Amino acid sequence: MPPYAARVRIFDGHNDALSRLAGAGPDAPAGFLAGDGAGHLDLPRAAAGGLAGGCFAVFTCAPPDAAYADGSYLAAVPHAPAWREAMIQIGLLRCLERGSEGRLRIARGVADLDGPGLAAVLHLEGAEPIGPRLEELELLHAAGMRSLGLTWSRPNAFATGVPFAFPGSPDQGPGLTDAGRALVAACRELRILVDVAHLNARGFWDVHALQDGGPPLVASHAGAHSLCASPRNLTDDQLRAVAESGGVVGINFHTGFLRADGADDPVTPRALIVAHAAHVAEVAGIDAVALGSDFDGATMPEELGDAAGLPGLLDAFRAAGFGEDDVAKVAHGNWRRVLEATWTA
Ligand code: ZN
Q: Among residues 191, 276, 192, which one has the least CA distance to residue 239?
């Protein structure tokens, strides 16, 4: 009998493995399947960590590192190269599915979340690959996309994402454009999850109003603003709105969104992830708490390391007093409930 922790299924709300693989040469997909130890996530480490599912982001407009320092990451990204990059990253995930011999499948429906191996939910992070008439959305859905974030941390034709400057409020910039409202409505029709991570406060409340009585409101990888005043984190009012909609906040493991000083510092205890989760539970209830690692896209606490460190993180939840039923909700149950409510509504 394995230890209890080894049997807890985990669903992780966000990783950037596809961006990493797209930038890593032709052998990268085989490396992911065999376990190349690069980044934070590959298939053997997912299995070692008990990862039963996760959202794989298609992120088409990653800025060079230098762009963060001079603010040029905020510049708009043109549609054509974003579309081309989306095709590459979606193609990569389909290659992984085919090459995995059943160990990884793209989750197109609820039943796909429950099998053995890793259920990969295809997520679009930033709607730049979609044009104003939204035809591309149909093709992305046909390719398996079941989750969409309107923006990354910059403005686009649909909405405005928050910049990273710390400390800062999420309340910066205007709400959704008319195209953004149309995109939310189209996602609802296609039963695509709408993710408010990276979105500014006015955009958040616009999505909240549009989804009223409909699909749950979800922030796939974010934290609690009252513990770390990054604009990427949600205020207590936002946390309550997410919970009232039946949604979740996937707690981001990025140290700069966890620490009170906002520092990008690997020497950060994984217990801070638990502290953000506990805050969300206190303000909004345990049903709103989930995981959203940002593996391959952020600075992880060294103590957690990578996907193989997930069972240790669950132990940190237990050490902080989370009971086994609550651990199971945070690890998998809450995400599964939200995806089922969205995809079958
Ligand atoms: Zn992100």
A: 276
pTM of the model: 0.97
How many residues are given for the chain? 345
Residue 294: name the closest of 236, 255, 239 by CA: 255
C-alpha 186 to ligand 1 mean position (Å): 22
Give 48 Cα–ligand 1 centroid separation in angstroms.
24
Helices 271-284, 310-319: crossing angle, 10 deg rounding: 60
101: its two tokens = 């011999």
Candidates 232, 331, 224; CA nearest to 275 is 224
Tens of pLDDT, residue by residue over 235-279, are: 999 999 999 999 999 999 999 999 999 999 999 999 999 999 999
Distance 100 CA to ligand 1 centre (A): 26
The rounded Å distance from CA 251 to ligand 1 centre is: 12
Task: Give the three-state DSSP class for 110.
Answer: helix
Which residues, including other chains, have CB under 8 Å from residue 28's CB and lie 6 or more apart?
20, 21, 22, 36, 38
